[in-house]
Amino acid sequence: MHKRVMVFSLIESRKWFTVNGSQRLCRPLSSVKVGHMWVQIMLKSSGGRRPKKKTYYRVNDLDRVMELQKKPSLILRLKSIIQSQKNRCILLRDLEKEVGFVQKWNFMGIIEKYPLIFRVAGGNRTPPMVMLTEKADKIALEEDEARVQMEPILVKNLRKLLMLSIDCTLPLETIQLIENDLGLPSDFEQSLIPKYPQFFSVKDVNGRTSIQLENWDSFLAVTVREEKLMRESVPTPKEKSRVLKDGNYCGPFAFQMRYPAGFRPNMNYLKEVQKWQKMEFPSPYLNAKRFELSDPKAQKRVVAVLHELLSLTMEKRLTSAQIDAFHSELRLPARLLLCLIKHHGIFYLTNKGVRSTVILKEAYDGSNLICKCPLLLFRDKFIALTGRRDIDSCTSVPPRFGQ
User: Fold this and answer.
1) What pTM did the predictor assign?
2) Disulfide check for 57: which of 99, 139, 192, 260 has CB 3.0–4.6 Å away?
């Protein structure tokens, strides 16, 4: 059964447009059918011809990723609210001030459902309050150690993010949009940036507070994709190699492909994919001003930029709105949504959750993230108190996080 949804976060150019009765900042694109859902995109008339429709196959495991994170996100947020209080507890009547009237009832349900994590005290003459249980509080103390282990990773990834951008500078508000996805503390501009003056500085650029990279490090100008190739010692491809049905190719400029189960490409399509996989392209860490997006090699470089951006996040995913916030700083193409749809073997677009989200396919095994940083391992341990059995059993720090 098909579902109609509107995905206007990745857009060609910016205009106010009415979607489902509300004003959105977007420009309509063309209509694309997405597996078991519809991504409605509208363009100007094509001379009376019906717009071409393409099938975009849904991956249930990756849709499930978004479903699985709903309750844990509420639990972790309530934990943070409780820990931020002076007495490490919060009156139930004050919870509304923190989360709003509507969300308050979702949190009340979480408190009632998970007595191993949250304990309600008070009553009669004392206003009821919620706090962490002794067991939950003991595990919560391990977050500090996880944050310590995360700091060198965060510094490295923030430097790489700045190196990806034009002039090695990003507005502070743009970084703040993805601070949680990177694993940065909420006050990173005060707690992290000043600790590393050799790497970062805060400057005013065109009236906007921005973070600027202080020095370029060629050793960091290597993508996660390239690091993986070096670890796996990919052999030199033969001049005439067999065309694989999964679209993968063994070569220095190739990307890992994971086509959905229902996708059945013909041989001509696979040959074009192999040709694209063989094509060399400039590094994402070279300044984007040097390239014209009409050049196929520059277009492939954009795919590498998106791949690297997602790879720098903890969970290898960002909402489409977050990616669009980097549009000018990373010189992303006008038709970014179409780029993501075209390369559906690398990226997955899901409309599950509150916002449309772009997921890096190779980072997941089913619904489980393959490599987890120390902070995610801590969160898994805390969420395990709920008795969930669908948490990844990864218990050690992956190679690229072992710093």
Assistant:
1) 0.83
2) 260
